[in-house]
Amino acid sequence: MSSILDSITQNFSILWPALIAGILVSLSHVPLGQQVLRRGIVFIDLAVAQVAGVGVVAAHYMGLELQGWMTQFAAVTAALGGALILTWTERRRPEVQEALIGVMFVVASTVQILVLANDPHGGEDLKDLLAGQILWVTPGQLWRAAFVTAGFLALWWTVAPRLGRIGFYVLFAVVVTVSVQLVGVYLVFTSLIVPAIATYRYPAGRQLWLGIALAVASYVVGLVVSAVTDLPTSALVVPVMVVIGAIVHLASPRNAVNSLAQPGVAETR
Q1: Distance between terminal CA atoms of the chain?
Q2: Over the stretch 208-248, which tens digit does the pLDDT of each residue have?
Q3: Which fold has domain 2-261?
Q4: From CA 160, how far away is CA 153, in angstroms rounded?
């Protein structure tokens, strides 16, 4: 027990920024994930995150600083472009929207590979974009994420019912662009979908806060286990969240109603 506490204490300076990043991601992604699940467009986050990644990779290819504002602008612009395309396809081709989201994900992924093909560090950069480097988040990244999260929460609790299709996709694109650079594509997807799946059978009033608690607890446990075992943190948080999510889901009320049949807050057409 003492050795575990020693490991956590020695790594505290690295763990607390990562924990803040996990909390910020949880606060924004759990409500978004619940809407994504209700709308039946589960893989939108993967597609938009990969499109944002194209912006990051393109900025890197042009020699821009990865944590600089120009890179952030390139990532947001790419993500917004992808979001607007999905807005158009949802209106024009709703019957194949999920398939088109998959196509966007594959195209964005292959574009990243092509852009980084001649970069000697391309493979490592691509791995960092997918798996994330949550232990190495910078104060600048945390401030940007805190600013975006605060703006998101303000909009979500005030004008969410009036956002409509375009507003939802734009808000989603901006939030995911910031978070994918904090925790990586895999954790973005997990933070969105696992809490939503785990809690959808609970009473509507408990789903949001239970989902946030689940996500934050997963980051805490994942960070602690990573500090003790020296395993990659981002990759560890994913199965931890799935296990905790499964426990929460199995503990749902026996007479629970399927809330996915209910219209979502941001589904105004």
Answers
A1: 55
A2: 999 999 999 999 999 989 888 888 888 899 999 999 999 99
A3: ABC transporter involved in vitamin B12 uptake, BtuC (1.10.3470)
A4: 10
